[in-house]
Amino acid sequence: MPRARRKEARPGELLAAALDVFAEKGFAATRVDEVAARAGVSKGTLFLYFSSKEELFKAVVRENLSGRFVEWDQELEQFQGSTAELLRYCFETWWERIGSTQASALGRLMLCEANNFPELAQFYRQEVIEPGHALVRRVLQRGMQRGEFRLLELEHAVYLVLAPLMFLMLARPTMGLCIPCPDSFDAGRYIALQADNVLQGLLVRPA
């Protein structure tokens, strides 16, 4: 049953409704009046907060992804364990906070529609991709500086960490449809296995 129409809605409710619609339909096919209806308000009310669909999308990205990098940077700084433990923690928390949530649809959306919306693609690169790469580089540098990881070419090594996460982000919605998937597939176990696999290549071996 659709929500009863209201005169006002908090911006957070509008952003939650927008995330759901963007995740379901992508950017191009999303209509602002549909987002407003999902939030139970008029299109005019939505435009009081967000001047366009592009600005609405940017706000959704900041709410769910780029606005969290300060928190993640602080967690990295305060982490007390080994860098191997830190990397496992990064894999697990990415899945818990992003990969298993609606927010993961934003990355899929941009990969599919970037060529059609270059301005939004540039925004996403600056707000999400570049800070995300910088965070991974800091983890790898930590391991190298502490003598835990072998010396790496950082610009390429970043993708060793990101590739298995990107696969899961892209493949999960179609598993069992166009991508064969056993009934026993467990994303958490996949994440743990990939962390083990990446660390096998990163860790310094005893002489």
UniProtKB/TrEMBL annotation:
Q: Which UniProt keywords apply?
A: DNA-binding, Transcription, Transcription regulation
Task: Give the transmembrane region(s).
Answer: none
Which PROSITE patterns does the UniProt record give?
HTH_TETR_2
Which positions does the record tag as DNA-binding?
A: 31-50
Cell division: present as a keyword of the record? no
Every copy of the HTH tetR-type domain together lies at 8-68
Give any GO molecular function from the UniProt entry. transcription cis-regulatory region binding
Pfam families membership: TetR_C_11, TetR_N
Q: Which PANTHER family match?
A: HTH-TYPE TRANSCRIPTIONAL REGULATOR RUTR, HTH-TYPE TRANSCRIPTIONAL REGULATOR UIDR
- The protein's name: Transcriptional regulator, TetR family
Please report the organism this UniProt entry assigns to the protein: Oryzisolibacter propanilivorax
